[in-house]
């Protein structure tokens, strides 16, 4: 049912037996929307379902009693109708008093008169039980729909969180790569190290120039000393062994 009026009979039956609860059940069924319900709405639905299920259990017991009363009364009437034939024979033979037969007839007529009422009470009990069963089924269906909607919502939320975490991870990786690329292109530490190496190289070049300037007079002096030494020594290149002996003996060659 889509609205409270659709549950009119149910509301009337439940209200008749349990007062305002009937209206509340009808309103719960009519107004509950699984797609927009909150957890508090679900709790109220569960509470109503529990109460209705208890009523259904009670109504089943009541129907069983009413049904049993009808069956027993019908059985009693059928047995009395068969007994009436025998009583008529006994009354005709004088084996039973007319007062006893009159009492029997009064009871049989009262039972037959009571049977329609018992049947109606049985029908009412069954209608009440059937309506409560419809209510329980409707509440159970709505609870299942709510849980299904909640499950979908939780799955959607989990998927959204997973997607968010994935995008955050992607951004984090992109930032890491950007940082590494920046370091590769223009690292502050690397640039400072490069500048330091160039500075040391420049200092070394300057010292080399100074050293070269200081070394030049030394090289020139060594060159002069070598010339002087070569001039002061006799020319011995190309002298024969005989000439060398004479030179060493202090004699000149003839």
Structure description:
The relative contact order is 0.07. The N and C termini lie far apart (158 Å). This protein has 254 residues and is mainly alpha-helical. Mean pLDDT is 79; it is low at 1-7. 87% of the residues lie in helices and 0% in strands.
Nutshell version of this structure?
The chain has 254 residues and is an all-alpha fold. The protein is built from 6 helices and no strands. Helix 1 packs across helix 4 (98-186) and helix 3 (39-93) runs antiparallel to helix 4.
Rg, nearest Å: 62 Å
Low-confidence regions: 1-7
Roughly how much helix do the residues carry, as a percent range?
over 70%
Helix segment tally: 6
The separation of the N and C termini measures 158 Å
Q: What proportion of the residues form beta strands (DSSP E)? A: under 5%
Oligomer classification:
single chain
Mean of residue pLDDT values: 79
Structural class: mainly alpha
**Number of distinct beta strands:** 0
Order of helices and strands: HHHHHH
The general outline is rod-shaped
Largest sheet: none
Protein name: PspA/IM30 family protein
Organism: Telluria antibiotica
Coiled coil: 129-179
Keywords: Coiled coil
Question: Which descriptors would you attach to this protein?
Answer:
mainly alpha, single chain, 6 helices, 254 residues, rod-shaped, disordered N terminus
Question: Which SSEs are present, and which pair or pack?
Answer:
Blueprint: H1 8-18, H2 21-31, H3 39-93, H4 98-186, H5 188-232, H6 241-249
Helix pairs in contact: 1-2, 1-4, 3-4
Coiled coil: 129-179
Protein name: PspA/IM30 family protein
Region (Disordered): 227-254
């Amino acid at each position: 049912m889509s609205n409270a009026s659709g549950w009119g009979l149910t509301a009337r039956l439940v209200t008749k037996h349990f007062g305002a609860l009937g209206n509340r059940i009808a309103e719960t069924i009519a107004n509950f929307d699984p797609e927009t319900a909150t957890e508090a709405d679900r709790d109220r639905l569960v509470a109503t379902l529990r109460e209705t299920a208890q009523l259904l259990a009670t109504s089943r017991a009541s129907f069983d009693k009413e049904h049993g009363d009808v069956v027993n009364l019908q059985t009693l009437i059928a047995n009395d109708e068969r007994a009436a034939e025998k009583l008529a024979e006994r009354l005709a033979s004088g084996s039973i008093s007319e007062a006893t037969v009159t009492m029997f007839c009064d009871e049989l007529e009262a039972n037959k008169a009571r049977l329609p009422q018992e049947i109606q009470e049985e029908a009412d009990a069954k209608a009440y039980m059937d309506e409560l069963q419809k209510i329980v089924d409707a509440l159970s269906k709505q609870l299942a729909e709510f849980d299904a909607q909640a499950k979908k919502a939780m799955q959607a939320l989990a998927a959204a969180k997973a997607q968010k975490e994935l995008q955050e991870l992607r951004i984090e990786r992109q930032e890491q790569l950007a940082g590494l690329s920046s370091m590769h292109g223009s690292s502050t530490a690397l640039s400072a190290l490069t500048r330091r190496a160039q500075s040391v190289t420049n200092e070394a070049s300057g010292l080399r120039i100074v050293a070269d300037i200081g070394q030049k007079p030394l090289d020139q002096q060594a060159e002069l000393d070598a010339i002087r030494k070569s001039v002061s020594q006799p020319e011995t290149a190309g002298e024969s062994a005989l000439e060398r002996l004479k030179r060493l003996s202090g004699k000149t060659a003839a």
